[in-house]
Every structure is written in C-alpha cells, then in structure tokens.
Write a structure and sequence with these properties.
heterodimer, A: 1003 residues, FAD/NAD(P)-binding domain, seven-stranded mixed sheet, six-stranded mixed sheet, 23 helices, 22% helix, 28% strand, elongated, B: alpha/beta, D-Amino Acid Oxidase, Chain A, domain 2, eight-stranded mixed sheet, 11 helices, disordered C terminus
C-alpha cells in the first residue's frame, strides 16, 4: 500500500495537519503536501478513470506531466474540473472528487469498454456508426459524448477575480531549477533586468531530490545562497507558482501565476497572467522522464521512477511497500537506492540493457538489491492495483521467467528535455541518439524581428541531464543572453555540481522487444486517452504515416497532458513501424500553453460591467434617471426611447415622433463622430475622402458628405462644417468615428504622407444636443444668447456664440425634416445645457426622444441610414445621391471603382419608397419576388426592404427599399415574401414621404 | 477497397487488427495525368473525388507538399452552416451542407457530421435586422433558417447568458441542420475514396514550378520530378498567391493567421454551435468534450501558422461574457492557420489567364463547411468549363465590381 513514511519529507510540515475530502471521504494530509501526495499518503492509489476504456487510473508522475490524477476540485463558484492533483497544493478544507465514472470510482459501468477494447481500436469510430444515417445524431453521438469528456461542468459563475501584469525585461528565465537559478545569477550580475519564474512553489527543481552536491555542499544550501543573492539584486524579480505558458513572436511570453489557488477565498486575485516582453528568453524548463511500454504499464501502482523518488524525498510518501524498478538507464537506480534507504523493499531492478556497470549500478548491487540485466517486464499483474510483475527476457517475445510479487513498479525509459517553450515560436530540434531524445538545436533558435535568436535553452531542457553539465549550461546561457544584448558578463567561477556518474542508456521502445499482438494491446502510450502501442502500429499499417496523421487518428498526445509522457514513445513506435529513423518522422507541433491555463486568467479584469469600456455621454445619468430604454451602439449606450409609465416601446416611439413633429424634441447626439481635419492641405484631403467637393465650402457653412471605400461602396456619411480656411470638422456616424478616423490616418500615413494635414478625433470633447421641432427656435431664443434667426443662421450654416450662458457652436442641420439646431458645447457643459433646455422647453411641450424616433423620422423624410440602406454593397448612385457626387473633381476614393461594369449596370437595385397597399408594415429584410428560379434552384428576387417602420405621422407603414431599376418604376406594385409563406403587395413610390419640399426644415 | 462496417471491425478484432489494408495507396507519380490537382486538403481531395464520381475522370493526381489534410482542413473549428446572405454563397454552402448529410455513407467513412444546429446571436439592433434579412433571403434560397427569440436561445443553450450587462441577446439566426463534422475524417474519407477509384494521392510532393506552352499549362515540376497534365487545378488556400505567381498571374488575396483554441474536455454542456459576432467569438463542444473556440483573424499578413495572443484574449473574454461558467475551465491548446482572404470575403472558383488552369481559393475563414460543395462545383467547372455553383465566383468579378459581400451577415471569422 502507499503510505506516509515515519521520517523525511523535505517539503512537508508534519505538525500542520490539513483536512480534506475525496469523493466525500474525510482524509488528512499535512502542510506542504500536494493533493497527490496527500492522497497517496492515505493509500488512495486509484484516483480516476481513463477517457476511452474507463480503465482504473492512479498517479504516474509527480508534476505537470501527470496524465491521470485529475479531479473535480472545489464547489459552487469555486468548482473546477480536470484539476491536476500533482500540481494542486493541499489546503485545509479542500474538497475534490474523481472523474469520468458512473456510478462510482470503484465500480464504473463504463469499464465494460475495457473487455471490449479489442473491438475498439484506434479510429474504430471512423469505420463504424455509419449506418443507419439518423443514428449518428440521435443515438451514437449522444452516447459517445456522454461517455467521453472528463470533469463535470461548472454550474455557477466564477467567484474569483483575475488580473494581468505587464513586464518588460532584458532576460526572462523560465524555470527555477539549478540551471535557471544560475542563468538568472549570471544575467543579473551583468546588470540585466531579469525575471525568473518557477511553476512550482519551490526553487531548485530536481537537484535536492537527486542528492546533488554543489561546490561540496548539498544542493539545498547552494539554492538558498543563490536565492539570497538574487533577492539582493534590484534588477531581478523572482516569482514562484508562475509557469512559462507560451512564447510568441518578438520575445513576447506569457507567465501564468497561480496566486491564490492554494489559499482560496483570500482577497487576492486567483490567477495573474503575466504579459512579458523580453529581449531574451532562457528556457530552463527541465526534463521529463519517459515511461516504458510493457503490458499493464497503466495499472495503478506503476509510476515513473523519478516520481517515486519525488514522493519519498519531498513528501515522505512511499507508493508501495515492495517496488520493482524497471529501467533502461542508470538514473532509476537512484530510486531503488532511496527506497532501500527508506527501509522499503526493492525485490528487483529489471534493467533492459544487456549489461549495466555504472557507479549507481554498483551501489545497488552492493546494497544487496537484485539486479536483472537483459530482462524486461512481460506483463504487470493486477487490476485496480499492482500485485506483481512477470519477468521476461528483453530480447524475447515475453515468455515468463518468473513472477515477482510487488505492489508498485517504478519505471524509467530515459529522459526528454522539455522543449515546448523553445518550440512554440519556431525553435527547431535535433535528435540526440545517445540519450534518445530531441533537444533544442542551437543553430535553429526562434528569431526575433531583427533576425537574432531570442530563445536560449539551458540545463536539462537543453539536453544536459547531469547536474554538473546543467549548472554550467545555465551559467553559459545567462552569460550568452546578456552578451548578445551588448552587456558584459561578469561573475567568477561556475559552481561545480556533482552527482554520481551514469553509464550510457539504451533506448527501449517496447518491452520485450518481440512482444506479440496480445501484449502490444496492453502497452499504454497515452494513459489518459487510452492509446496503446498496437494503436500506433495500426495507424501506420493503415497509411496514417505522418506523425500528425497518427496523432489525430489515434488521439495520441491530445489529452490534457498534451503528450508530455507519450509523444516520444509513440513517435518511436511509429518510426519503427515505418522502418524510418525517429528524426525523419519528426515531432508534432508544440503549441501554447505549456499546461492548460484558466480562461479566467486569459480574460483578466474584463468581465461583466468591465467586459468592454462603457462609453457614456455627458447626459448619460440624466437618461438613466428619466427611464431610458437603452440600446448598445458600439461601446456607447443610447436611449432607444423613453417609455413613460405603462407605455410600450412602440407607443413611446410614436409619442416621441409626434411630439417632435408637432412641438419640440430633444436628442442627445453626442455620440456622433466629430473629427477635426486641419492643415493647409485639409481641403484637398477632404476632396479625396468625400465624393463631394469640400474645398469650396465656405467657412461658416455645412455640407452633407458621403465617404466611399476603394471599392466604391458607401461607408459613412455626415455633415462637414468648415471652421476656418484650414480647419474642417467632419461629423461621422456614431458607430463610425473610430474606424473613419483610422481610415483617414491610413490614407494620410500610407499614401499621402507628404500632405500637410492633421486629424484629431474630438468625439468625446463635445456634448451635442439636437433641438428639433417647430418650437426649436422659440426655445433657443427664450434661453437667450446668440442670434439663431433664419437670417443669421440659415439652413446648412453654423455659428459660434453663447446659448444660455454656455459657449456653443450651433449647426443648423436636420436629420428629421424639422426645424433643427444641433448645439455642440464642451463636454463638461453638456448636462447643464441639457437640463436648461429641458426645463425651459416645458412650456413648448419638449420631450426627449431616442434613437428609434430618430430612425422613424429620417425614414419618413427619405434620408438614408448607413447600415440600413447600405450594407457594403451599395454605392451612392444606388441611393439617388448623384447630387452629392462632385462632377468637377478628377478623383476621390472609390471613383474609379464606381466606373466598373457592374457599378454602372442599369439593372442595379436602386432606392425607392414602398407603400403597402393595406397600410401594413413590411417585414424587416423582406425580399421582392421576381418570376422563376435561378440555375441553383433559388427563387429570383428583384429588390429588398432596407428600412421599414410604422409612421406615426402618416399613420401607416412606410418603407425604403432597393429595387431593380426602381426609380423608373414609380407606381408599379411588387410582391414581398414574408416568412410565413404569404406575400405582401407594395407600391413603388418616391422615398420622401414627408414634407417633400423641405418647407419645415428651412423655415 | 474493403468496406468499413461494424462487422469488418469485429472480424479484424479476432486477428488483432493485423489485416486492415491501407486507407489510401502511396503511389509513385506517373509521367502524365488528365488532371492534376495541387493541394490534398479537403477542397482538393473533394474536387478529385467528384471528378471521378460525377464525370468518370480518374486519371487524376492530387499532389501534396506535406501530409494530406494538414492545412486548414485540419486546423479549423469544424462548423458547417449555409445561412449565408447572398444567393451564390447560399447556393454553394447549402450544396455542401446537403452533401455532408450523406457524406459518411457516400464515402463509407464516418465523418461524424452532426447536424446539431448553428445559432448566430443578435446582440445589437443592427445585427438583429441583418439576421432577419438573412432569414428572408434563406427562405427564398431553400436554406432552412429562422430568427428565434431570446427565450428559445436560452432553451437551446442553457449555459448562455442572454441578459449580459453589455450586449443582451436580442434573438438569433438559427439553422437547425447546421452543425459540425470531424475535420480530419473529411480529408481521410475523401482520400480513401479517391484512392479506391484509382486516383493518385501523392504526399510529400511539392510543386516547385508550373510548366507552360503556348498560354497553356503543360505540367508541373515537383520535388519528385516533372509531371505532365491536360488540366491543372490549384487548390492550396493560404499559399494560393505563391502558386499563382508560379503560373504567372496575380490574385486579389491576402494571407493572414486565424487562430482557434480548445478547452480541456468536460462532460456535455452545449449541444449546438453558438456564434456571437458582436463580441467576436464562437464556441461548440466536440464529441470528446472539448470546447472548440474561435474568433477574429490577425490584422496583418503572414505565413506563420501561429498568431498573436491578444486575439485569443479578446475571444476568451467574449465567450466568458457569453458563457460565464467557462471561466474556471482551462485552455488546453491554441493554434493558427493561414487563411486566404479576398476583397469581398468570398471564394474564387475560376478559370485563370492560363487556358487549362483553374483555381479554387479565397475561402478565407470559412472553407471547411464548403468542402463537398466546393469540390462538386469545381470538378464540374474543370470537367465542363462551367458550373452554376461556381459561376458567380470567377476572378472577373473583381474587375467588374460584381462582389459577393457577406460582411453584413458575418462580422467574424467562422
């Protein structure tokens, strides 16, 4: 059984007990435990079920590479599925449950997939579930979905908060083992700004576990000294619990700091995402041990040899009383020796190498441990727990020589450098045949904007597995990073790390090497996704020869551990099946993140109310207090209407329209884009930007302008006011301000960079209020100030002065067809003026109106609306706006495009008014039917509705639409299709329904 | 070709699956083919398949510089829908969608087409009007869609937040027979079926030049030698510009990185595909249980299959806002693909200035859903010189201004 040892455990405090529950069972661990070590200390070896066959699963590893030990963690707003127990620090009150089983972990109905496994090889679903056709959606897929998935679905909103940090450093060191620490020391001493991050809560990596000595002292002493030195440097920042998650172009990297996962509910953010811009990145990310492929290597109790060592050394937990070690290298002997030293039994070390003779091997033999070379494991015995292993000759086919009872197996197939972060941004790998692993190829590092390499691998992540070499390599990496940045590397002698020497390893990709089909079907490569040696061989046999094909066909390496244990082993099996070399077959692509990171951390503070900036006009509060029914318009919120007690939206809009037309209305027009265009070439610039001539506009005058894109399509409209000889103020649509400003800058910066024109987006600098209706002038005159009479301020003019004591620019423009003034005042004065207008307007029957009344009134007047009458396919000529297209200009943006064959086609759909015969309202977006179908069997059409409203003024439905040759067909009746299959008849009429001669707005 | 079935699997199980034959052959290139298709992605393979199936043209080679299905076919978010606005788009995407319905049976390869329904949320009045218009257009195009209420949205997707503080859901355009399919299986299924007809699918064969004679293509130069052909089809998505340059003409294409990501797998929580264009994100759940997520494309041109992190951030924010419960789930993997964008965001299926050379590209962010329809139409175009499905998608449209602009219907990648 797995248990807590009486002594030892460098990371735990035995006196600080921590209570927790697993599947409702109350258990106890101690401070410093991971959830995995605490579960093992309670003999909970079975922790979950695999994805496909629902096989029993126990811990294989002790760190981020763990594929099996995933739990549903927490409750309510702090519930999280798929939490890796090996990287979860234990805290008091932790509650967790195992995953992917029904009804219970011990008795899982889904485990019937196990005996059936033979019928469910890789890709079986591509070959089955084909007939009968409706069964996929209704029977097969729901069943597969239910049995797949892992953790439970959270039911509540996240109770935690998250934040982002931004860091700019010379050198980012990822990984706080001895190589990373030394790299940070070397870079820090040179004066570089250094950020050193470590994914666990502890510095030093594997060195303290492996009994390394540095400069004659235990590794822990050196680590403490190194940390002290680093903490003393102002230019160095240290962070534990902070994982290097991804490396992106130009030295951009992500750090994922789990600030409060181990202390939930405190006031800190749960996670912090570091966005780091680093000139150089050193990846000192260590190496991961590989499993060996023997039959039954997935049975709980079979673990990585290094993980067994971690559990014993760090947490004083022994996975078993009798642990068989199986290996192809010397390093695993350390595990045997450590177990023996802890007083546990090691029945045998099974070494697949024909001979073994290094100092570690000698030490094991001297300690009296039985060492069997040239041997392998034929199969592991046991179901939910290891009960023994069957010994065989590695060179044979698996004939059993002897059965050795045991309750744990420690396996080692060699080590693979963690090359993920090196590879994220294009770093290439080279195959190291001696150590049978891929390591970074320093000649093909990821390069930055200047072509210089910006990632440097260090330590065991660079293939230097021995402590001495790793430390020296870390030093070299730190120095080379600062030198490449033009800094002088300082610092004395490189510390000397020592550990027992190791003899050469021998690659072993299958155990025994001649294993037959039955054994190969029991050799797991990917524990979580249930991919076995036989699956990869099947993929190769069926022609899925590319490593990407194999991965996708078998799902090898696609589980939540992303193949950290399985990829190299799978690759080796594939290359053997194909008779090709491993480097020739190559790896799959390494993608961020290194281990999964929370969506919450990615989103950061932006959620709920702060999801996106909420832009408020100066009168926003007033609208809110006066019952505005809001409509999102970009990041703005605009009142759609102001319903009064018990009033429906429709009624409110009707009242607002009528009141504006008959008395007086007030509109908050502050969201309209206001872009200042200034400079000696401003007129010339606007002549290119607008279809109209703007350079001949007189100061003090306004002109309605149209803006097209290069393809000739209408993109924005608005009133341009000339302020003085060199200054124009361009009004845009509310939604258009930003992108029109960007459009202007695009042309100025990329095409006409030598024109003397400057632009500024002043949208938020001004509050703008439209005073609209027959009493508009009466109200302004009552408030007093500048002359707003028809003589001083005629239609399409503007003037500057004071209104009610507020400095204002008043534009005599109208989007409603009524007498109308748009008053722009400094934003700070907006609310004051609005309130003055409201109270002074009472006697004239003033009411505010919202966006919908605005839309209805403009449609009654036949004015187009960008986004309604236009959709990116409409040119001004389609809308009868020829009058706004200057004939005198040589050019404007879109002019050439508008001369293309299709643009001048008389068959184009053009703007008309539509009047339903019965007075009803046409449906939004309805199409006008034409006879017959096209070659693709679609009904032919001849037009469509672009705007349709009930007109409170005319008390009937009105619509604008685009109809083929529309203006030539006045009076014709056409049919519009509705969604219920019927049609509505409408007469083609002039688009101006109200005050055709403009008498009201010009008054 | 031995047929796949549950019986075949049972039979093979008895001998440890040692008797399965290759899904597709691995032939050496011949000296000459009637038709060469460059690019063994979904579109190229589907073209070859329908050349054989519909026109009996099987002396065909599909040349692939890497591994088949390794480009955007294997990198997308597997959404299938045909709720497009413009007639030519609706025609080709609906043809594709309807072929997907029976593709597993047609190819004898389970592509796992799952018509689970696709909804596009309306979160502004402008968007709502746009989708109502699309629903009207679809009704006349023979595409089954409807505009549904917020309550119905909530009923179909219980985890959705329809009353978000910023962009409450006003309704959705709903296509009940839209859905997803297993992307790799589409490429593999077509490759297997092509191979069974005697079509040569040749991987690791990079085209390095296009040989011409008298304004016509004579053949291609490849990393595995020269190969002659009567007709050439270029179907290479993000690298179309590179191939067009070899053929001596230019394309109105920009290549940008589009990213996607998946969460860790969880038990079923969302049964339909949800696209939220106002906030820029979309999500569905794979049969494995992963949430499959996508968003906008990068704003600059490049050929690296990566992408910038800020797009991932924007997308994840949008989806947490739409589905608050996903906040504590974790991103498992992000990746990128290179999409070929045209000026009107619609594809090009066209003749070219070279008489016997055809090009199929410009699918931008939405090509996966079109694969069967694209192959069907492009095969007809190559075999007969014209196809009603492809007629509107010619290169000439850029010169004439005859754009097929879908931007009004989809402001986000898909």
């Amino acid at each position: 059984m797995s248990t807590r040892l009486q002594t030892g455990g460098r990371l735990i405090d035995r006196n600080a007990r921590r209570g927790f529950t697993f599947n409702g069972r109350r258990l106890e661990g101690v401070a410093g435990d991971t959830l995995a070590s605490a579960l093992l200390a309670n003999d909970q070896m079975l922790v979950g079920r695999s994805f496909k066959y629902h096989r029993p699963r126990g811990f294989v590893a002790a760190g981020a590479e763990e594929p099996n030990g995933l739990v549903n963690l927490g409750t309510g707003g702090r519930f999280e599925p798929n939490q890796r127990a090996t990287t979860t620090e234990l805290f008091d009150g932790l509650a967790c449950a195992s995953q992917n089983h029904w009804p219970s972990l011990d008795f899982d109905i889904g485990a019937v997939n196990g005996p059936l496994a033979r019928f469910l090889p890789a890709g079986f679903y591509y070959k089955t579930f084909i007939q009968p056709r409706p069964f996929w959606k209704h029977v097969y897929e729901p069943f597969i979905r239910q049995s797949a998935g892992l953790g439970q679905v959270p039911a509540e909103r996240d109770a935690d908060r998250y934040e982002h940090f931004y860091a700019f450093v010379d050198v980012l060191v990822i990984g706080g083992g001895i190589a990373g620490l030394q790299a940070a020391l070397a870079a820090g001493r040179a004066g570089a700004r250094v950020l050193l991050i470590e994914q666990t809560a502890h510095w030093g990596g594997r060195a303290p576990v492996d009994g390394v000595t540095i400069d004659g002292h235990p590794a822990e002493a050196w680590i403490a000294r190194a940390l002290k030195a680093l903490e003393g440097m102002e230019n160095v920042t240290l962070r534990t619990r902070c994982m290097g998650a991804g490396v992106y172009d130009h030295g951009y990297a992500l750090g994922y700091e789990r600030v409060a996962d181990h202390s939930p509910g405190d006031t800190r953010p749960r996670h912090r995402l570091w966005k780091i811009r680093a000139a150089r990145i050193i990846t000192a990310t260590g190496a991961i041990e590989r499993p060996l492929s023997f039959a039954g290597n997935d049975i709980p109790g079979v673990m990585l040899a290094s993980a067994v060592r971690d559990y014993v050394a760090n947490w004083a937990v022994s996975p078993g009383d009798r642990t068989v070690v199986v290996t192809n290298n010397d390093d695993a002997y350390r595990t045997a020796l450590m177990l023996r030293e802890a007083g546990l039994v090691v029945p045998a070390i099974i070494d697949a190498r024909p001979t073994a003779s290094g100092p570690l091997v000698r030490a094991a033999r001297e300690a009296g441990i039985r060492v069997e070379t040239g041997r392998g494991i034929a199969r592991v015995k046991g179901a939910k727990r290891v009960t023994g292993v069957a010994l065989c000759a590695q060179a044979g086919e698996g004939a059993v020589l002897e059965e050795i009872p045991c309750d744990a197996v420690a396996m080692s197939g060699g080590w693979s450098p963690v090359v993920h972060l090196w590879s994220h941004c294009g770093g290439k790998l080279t195959w190291d045949a001696g150590q049978a692993h891929f390591r970074p190829d320093p000649e093909r590092a990821p390069t930055s904007h200047d072509g210089a390499p910006f990632v440097i691998a260090a330590g065991s992540a660079n293939g230097y597995l021995l402590a001495g070499e790793a430390l020296a390599d870390g030093d070299a990496a730190g120095k080379s990073a600062v030198r490449s940045l033009g800094m002088a590397a300082k610092g004395g002698a490189v510390p000397k790390a020592e550990a027992e020497a190791e003899g050469p390893m021998t690659p072993v990709w299958m155990m025994p090497q001649g294993a037959g089909a039955e054994l190969r079907m029991k050799m797991w490569l990917d524990y979580q996704n249930d991919v076995k040696v036989s699956d990869v061989q099947l993929a190769a046999r069926e022609g899925y020869e590319s490593v990407e094909h194999t991965k996708r066909y078998t799902t090898l390496g696609m589980a939540t551990d992303q193949g950290k244990l399985s990829n190299i082993n799978g690759l080796a099996v594939l290359s053997q099946s194909l008779g090709a070399d491993i480097p020739q077959v190559g790896t799959t692509t390494f993608r961020p993140p290194y281990t999964p990171i929370s969506f919450g951390a990615i989103a950061g503070e932006a959620r709920g109310d702060t999801f996106q900036p909420l832009r408020r006009t100066p009168m926003h509060r007033w609208h809110e207090e006066n019952g505005a029914d809001w409509e999102p318009v970009g990041q703005w919120r605009r009142p759609y209407c102001y319903p009064r007690d018990g009033e429906s939206r429709e009624d409110a809009v009707g009242r607002e329209v009528k009141n504006t037309r008959q008395n007086l209305g007030l509109l908050d027009a502050s969201t309209l884009g206001k872009i200042l265009v200034k400079g000696p070439d401003a007129g010339r610039f606007l002549d290119m930007l607008y279809t109209n001539m703007m350079s001949n506009l007189k100061p003090g005058k306004c002109r309605y302008g149209l803006m097209c894109n290069e393809n000739g399509f209408l993109m924005d409209d608005g009133v341009v006011a000339r302020i003085d000889e060199e200054t124009f103020l361009c009004h845009t649509t509310s939604g258009g301000a930003e992108h029109i400003h960007a459009h202007m800058e695009d042309w100025l910066q990329c095409e006409w960079w030598d024109w003397r024109v400057y632009t500024a987006n002043l949208t938020e600098q001004f509050a703008q209020i439209a005073v609209v209706g027959p009493h508009a002038r009466d109200l302004l005159e009552k408030l007093g100030g500048m002359d707003v009479g028809a003589g001083a301020l005629p239609f399409m003019a503007w003037s500057e002065g004071e209104i009610a004591g507020v400095r204002a620019r008043v534009y005599r423009i109208s989007f409603s067809g009524e007498l109308s003034y748009e008053i722009a005042v400094p934003a700070s004065q907006g609310l004051a003026l609005w309130e003055k207008l409201v109270s002074a307007g009472e006697e004239f029957g003033l009411m505010p109106y919202g966006t919908e009344a605005l839309h209805v009134m403009r449609a009654e007047k036949g004015f187009i609306m960008i986004g309604d009458e236009t959709d990116g396919t409409v040119i001004p000529q389609d809308l009868g706006l020829h009058w706004a297209i200057s004939k005198k200009k040589d050019d404007y943006i879109g002019k050439r495009a508008q001369q293309r064959a299709h643009m001048v086609d008389p068959e184009r759909w053009q703007l008309v008014g539509l009047e339903t015969l019965g007075g009803g309202v046409l449906p939004e977006g309805a199409y006008a039917l034409a006879p017959d179908q096209n070659a693709n069997g679609q009904r032919n059409t001849q037009g469509r509705v672009t705007s349709t409203y009930y007109s409170p003024t005319l008390e009937r439905g009105i619509a604008l639409g685009l109809v083929r040759r529309g203006p030539e067909r006045m009076g014709e009746i056409i049919e519009f299709a509705t969604l219920d299959g019927t049609t509505m008849s409408a007469k083609i009429v002039d688009p101006v329904f109200y005050d055709k001669d403009g008498e009201k707005q010009n008054v | 070709m031995r047929r796949y079935s549950v019986f075949a699997v049972a039979r093979e199980a008895a001998r440890y699956h040692t008797g399965w034959e290759r899904a597709w052959a691995s032939p050496e290139p011949k000296k000459r083919y009637d038709v060469i298709i460059i690019g063994a992605g979904g579109h190229g393979l589907a073209t070859a398949y329908y050349l054989g199936k519909n026109f009996g043209i099987t002396n065909v080679a599909v040349l692939e510089k890497g591994w088949l299905g390794g480009g955007n076919t294997g990198r997308n978010t597997t959404i299938i829908r045909s709720n497009y606005l413009q007639d030519p788009s609706a025609a080709i995407y609906e043809k594709a969608r309807s072929l997907y319905e029976t593709l597993s049976q047609d190819l004898n390869y389970n592509v796992m087409f799952s018509p689970r329904g696709v909804m596009m949320l309306a979160q502004t009045e402008h968007e709502r009007r746009g989708y109502e218009r699309t629903a009207h257009a679809n009704a006349l195009q023979g595409v089954e869609t409807s505009f549904i209420s917020p309550d119905r949205v909530k009923q179909l997707v219980p985890i959705i937040n329809i009353s978000g503080p910023r962009y409450p859901v006003l309704g959705a355009l709903w296509q009940p027979r839209g859905g997803t399919a297993r992307h790799d299986a589409v490429a593999w299924g077509y490759a297997r079926a092509c191979s069974a007809m005697g079509i040569d699918v040749i991987q690791q064969c990079e085209v390095t030049g296009i040989r011409q004679k008298g304004g016509k293509v004579a053949g291609v130069t490849t990393s595995r030698g020269d190969i002659a052909c009567d007709k050439l089809g270029i179907v290479v998505a993000g690298h179309s510009g590179v191939l067009a340059q070899m053929a001596g003409f230019r394309l109105p294409i920009e290549s940008v990185a589009l990213q996607a990501l998946v969460s860790e797998p969880i038990k079923p929580c969302i049964d339909v595909v949800v696209m939220a264009n106002t906030v820029h994100g979309y999500m569905s759940q794979s049969d494995k249980g992963e949430l499959v997520i996508g968003g906008g494309a990068d704003g600059y041109n490049n050929y690296t299959q990566r992408g910038s992190f800020h797009h991932v951030e924007e997308t994840v924010r949008a989806l947490i806002e739409t589905f608050p419960i996903i906040s504590r789930l974790k991103m498992l993997r992000q990746w990128g693909g290179i999409v070929d964008m045209t000026g009107d965001r619609s594809p090009i299926l066209s003749k070219t200035p070279l008489e016997n050379c055809f090009i199929n590209c410009g699918w931008g962010t939405g090509g996966f859903k079109a694969i069967p329809g694209s192959g069907w139409g492009f095969a007809e175009l190559m075999a007969r010189g014209a196809s009603p499905l492809t007629e509107a998608f010619g290169l000439d449209r850029f010169r004439e201004g005859r754009f097929i602009d879908e931007s009004v219907a989809a402001g986000v990648a898909h």
